[in-house]
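User: I'm writing a tutorial on reading structure tokens. Could you give me a worked example: one chain, its sequence, then its tokens, then a sentence or two explaining what the tokens reveal?
Assistant: Sure. Here is the example chain.
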Amino acid sequence: MHPESAPSIDRLSGLLERFRVRAQLHHCGPLCGRVHFAASDGHGYLHVLRRGRLRVSHPGARGVPATLGFDEPTLLFYPRPLTHRFHNPPSDGADFTCARLDFEGGAQHPLARALPPLVALPLAQVAGLEQSLQLLFAETDRVRCGQRVLADRLFEVVVIQLLRWLLDHPRQAGVHAGLISGLAQPRLARALVALHDAPGEAWTLERMAARAGMSRTAFAQAFRAHVGQSPGAYLAHWRIALAQDRLRAGRPVKQLAAELGYANPSALSRAFAARVGMSPRDWLATTAS
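And here are its predicted structure tokens:
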């Protein structure tokens, strides 16, 4: 699917307003020798290879190549914690700008869950990045007042631009069935954005299909093929993800039930336990420990 055929709706804002992505400048300049990024640190990463060559390895990881090599300006996007190592002989003169990424909710962030463990793209392939990267490089090339704060925000802009590109080019990025794949389909995107924006409404299959402009049967089949689960299962997962986010923010279950489309707090608690494996109170206790 090409950008010009993308649906004329905002597919990202509703997600990112509820589940933020934060970036923190981690490194800029040449990397020599071996640099290790451990999954145990709990961060995703966005690396920008500005010039030079790079070999990266993924010790013990599944679902990604054991080693990869790059010799042109490239983005390496790790949306979830994944151990990786850079191997750079000093003579290569490779130059990097890197940021740690924190997806709100961790591995349960809807976009983090939907993305492959690694997205590696030549910078020239992602339209619209050039100006943002010029600003980012200008900030990281020398120390100025507010440099780190501004660099962090610019990295977040780059992440959003990268996510935009992924929505329009899921196959090129190696994205399989899931939220990104669903949002890449214009009709399904209309229904998904409606669910994201109004999770508490009474979403029957008929109503979701009508929002997509499809018959019930065609909608259900297309949704499962591209998103990887039924519309009802996706809606239930989205509501519980929102409940977890709002519980972490200190909201009580009794306030959340009506907001998220449940008849009463007990119904929300039962749905929560069925999906998470424990009550909201017990789950919240585990996040605080």
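What the tokens reveal: The longest helix spans residues 147-168. The longest strand covers residues 21-30.
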